[in-house]
Amino acid sequence: MTGRISRRTALTGGAGIALGAASLGVLPLFGTPDRQQDPATCTTPDLSERQARLVVSNWPGYIDEDDDGYVSTLTDFQKRTGIDVSYTADVNDNLEFFAKVVNQLGSCQSSKRDLFMLTDWMAARMIQVGWIQPLDAAKVPNLHANLIDSLQGIGWDPDRTYSAPWQSGLTGIAYNKSKVGEVRSFEELLSRPDLKGRVSLLTEMRDTMGLIMLSQGADPADFDEDDWDNALDRLRKARNDGQIRAFTGNEYIQDLAAGNVLACEAWSGDVAAAEDENLVFVAPEEGQMIWSDNMLIPNLAEHQANAEEWINYYYDPEVAAKLAAYVWYICPVKGAQEAMEKVDPSLVENPLIFPTTESLATTHSFMALEEFQIRAYEGDFADVTGG
User: Fold this and answer.
1) Spatial separation of the C-alpha atoms in residues 241 and 252, rounded to whole Å
2) Do residues 259 and 176 lie in contact, with contact meaning Cβ atoms separated by under 8 Å?
3) Per-residue model confidence as pLDDT tens digits over 291-333
4) Using a CB cutoff of 8 Å and minimum separation of 24, what contacts does 212-216 make?
5) What's the whole-number mean pLDDT along residues 268-293?
6) pLDDT at 123 (0 to 100)
7) pTM of the predicted model over 0.85
8) Could you say which DSSP state residue 67 is in?
9) What would you report as the CA-atom Rg of the chain, rounded to the nearest whole angstrom?
10) Cα distances (angstroms) measured from residue 360 to each of 71, 148, 332, 341
11) What is the DSSP letter of 61?
């Protein structure tokens, strides 16, 4: 991972884009009547049988690459299936990508893509407004047989009718053990005297506010206005008290390694990619957030069956293990940990790729929001963080 631009590196500026949009009141209007579509009628004939093609959009640094005799999973897929894949790393931010496709998908026109990967909250919104085609369950048996339990039964797509997780990650805390003693809870970031002024939190609203809610005993997957207001007040107090040095994207890793920041809110993949023995990722005592980027087939995709063949391929445990060994995020596929024995035995017990059942039991997701809530909550958060 060292030296590569990762999916989360691409988000360094992305959260700022989201917060800036929120503060200006220009978050995308999903819910307006002219945006709503019926995926059952917004379709086109599937050309997969006569066109062995597939157009995929994904985040940067999110797939393995051919190198010195190593055959990537993408190349292997093309050889196995005969499908020519046009693969582009053009998803740099959820809102930025939304801007690329909103006019097409919002008016039942082709996005010129067969498959793209978006984070839970954006995936949920696109599904809700009817921009995403349902998957043919018979063509993706590996998805339904091998999806890890912790990613099943999500509220916005409980049966994974429309979405298939590509990779997942955890949001918790990290500290530099060469500079400070053990940090166990998120509340410590907000209040511990020896950390004052040397703590950073993330500009990603759902991660930061989710962890604060957990620290207050609220459920980020099912909260009310009082829960939100209490968490926001707690964040405001920590900032006003001088506890928080900065709100950042994943540039916090450099500050953490240098000792400018002693402890911080962190993404698991960043800590793994740093390969620094002094940086420790911790699941907070209160719980941690889990997120996924999801494979979605948009309306008017011309090669849906080929896209479903891709999804099924990547839910083969051996394929999933090869991918996980490269990207170092949570692998969503059952059996991949056993398959990793042949790929890279040193990663079999890596908890950032294969969290234990006990660790996954501590994970929480953020509630799917209505449009008015997105606007209000992003605006509230930006007011406190200065986004």
Assistant:
1) 20
2) yes
3) 899 999 999 999 999 999 999 999 999 999 999 999 888 999 9
4) 212/186, 214/186, 214/284, 214/286, 214/287, 214/364, 215/185, 215/186, 215/187, 215/190, 215/284, 215/286
5) 90
6) 94
7) no
8) B
9) 21
10) 32, 10, 12, 21
11) T
